[in-house]
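Sample entry (93 residues):
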Amino acid sequence: MAIEVETITLTGGTAGLQARIRAQADALCALGPTLSEPELDTMVPSRLLSNDEVLVDEPVPLKELITGLAAVEIPAHTQQLLDLLPKSAPPEA
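Predicted structure, serialized as C-alpha coordinates:
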Protein backbone atom coordinates (compact mmCIF):
# COMPACT_ATOMS: atom_id res chain seq x y z
CA MET A 1 0.00 0.00 0.00
CA ALA A 2 1.88 3.02 -1.27
CA ILE A 3 1.13 6.65 -0.58
CA GLU A 4 0.34 8.54 -3.77
CA VAL A 5 2.48 11.56 -4.63
CA GLU A 6 -0.70 13.67 -4.84
CA THR A 7 -1.57 12.79 -1.24
CA ILE A 8 1.90 13.74 -0.05
CA THR A 9 1.71 17.04 -1.94
CA LEU A 10 -1.78 17.88 -0.64
CA THR A 11 -0.69 17.39 2.96
CA GLY A 12 2.35 19.64 2.65
CA GLY A 13 5.05 17.17 1.67
CA THR A 14 6.47 14.37 3.75
CA ALA A 15 6.77 16.55 6.87
CA GLY A 16 3.15 17.66 6.50
CA LEU A 17 1.99 14.06 6.07
CA GLN A 18 3.96 12.99 9.14
CA ALA A 19 2.43 15.81 11.18
CA ARG A 20 -1.07 14.93 10.00
CA ILE A 21 -0.74 11.23 10.88
CA ARG A 22 0.82 12.13 14.24
CA ALA A 23 -2.08 14.50 15.01
CA GLN A 24 -4.63 11.85 14.06
CA ALA A 25 -2.91 9.27 16.27
CA ASP A 26 -2.80 11.76 19.16
CA ALA A 27 -6.51 12.48 18.71
CA LEU A 28 -7.35 8.78 18.81
CA CYS A 29 -5.28 8.28 21.96
CA ALA A 30 -6.98 11.24 23.64
CA LEU A 31 -10.49 10.29 22.56
CA GLY A 32 -10.76 6.71 23.82
CA PRO A 33 -10.18 7.28 27.55
CA THR A 34 -12.58 10.24 27.67
CA LEU A 35 -15.63 8.27 26.51
CA SER A 36 -17.85 6.07 28.65
CA GLU A 37 -18.78 2.51 27.67
CA PRO A 38 -22.29 3.59 26.59
CA GLU A 39 -20.73 6.30 24.40
CA LEU A 40 -18.25 3.82 22.93
CA ASP A 41 -21.14 1.44 22.21
CA THR A 42 -22.97 4.12 20.20
CA MET A 43 -23.72 2.91 16.69
CA VAL A 44 -22.26 5.24 14.08
CA PRO A 45 -23.37 5.21 10.43
CA SER A 46 -20.21 4.18 8.59
CA ARG A 47 -19.06 3.86 5.02
CA LEU A 48 -15.43 2.81 4.80
CA LEU A 49 -13.68 2.63 1.44
CA SER A 50 -10.31 1.33 0.34
CA ASN A 51 -9.21 1.99 -3.23
CA ASP A 52 -12.84 2.67 -4.21
CA GLU A 53 -13.94 -0.68 -2.73
CA VAL A 54 -16.65 -0.51 -0.07
CA LEU A 55 -15.43 -2.36 3.02
CA VAL A 56 -18.19 -1.32 5.42
CA ASP A 57 -21.55 0.27 4.70
CA GLU A 58 -23.50 -0.10 7.92
CA PRO A 59 -23.62 1.27 11.45
CA VAL A 60 -20.80 0.06 13.70
CA PRO A 61 -20.02 0.79 17.37
CA LEU A 62 -17.79 3.82 17.86
CA LYS A 63 -15.29 1.69 19.79
CA GLU A 64 -14.80 -0.53 16.72
CA LEU A 65 -14.02 2.51 14.57
CA ILE A 66 -11.50 3.78 17.11
CA THR A 67 -9.95 0.34 17.58
CA GLY A 68 -9.73 -0.23 13.84
CA LEU A 69 -8.03 3.09 13.26
CA ALA A 70 -5.60 2.53 16.12
CA ALA A 71 -4.84 -1.11 15.30
CA VAL A 72 -4.78 -1.01 11.50
CA GLU A 73 -4.76 2.44 9.92
CA ILE A 74 -2.19 4.24 12.06
CA PRO A 75 0.38 1.38 11.90
CA ALA A 76 -0.18 1.02 8.14
CA HIS A 77 0.35 4.72 7.54
CA THR A 78 3.39 4.69 9.81
CA GLN A 79 4.87 1.92 7.66
CA GLN A 80 4.10 3.94 4.54
CA LEU A 81 6.03 6.86 6.00
CA LEU A 82 8.94 4.59 6.92
CA ASP A 83 8.94 3.29 3.34
CA LEU A 84 9.46 6.88 2.13
CA LEU A 85 12.76 7.16 4.00
CA PRO A 86 15.86 6.81 1.84
CA LYS A 87 17.24 3.31 1.87
CA SER A 88 20.54 3.16 3.70
CA ALA A 89 23.54 1.77 1.90
CA PRO A 90 24.36 -1.84 2.72
CA PRO A 91 27.14 -2.21 5.28
CA GLU A 92 30.61 -2.42 3.78
CA ALA A 93 32.42 -5.72 4.15
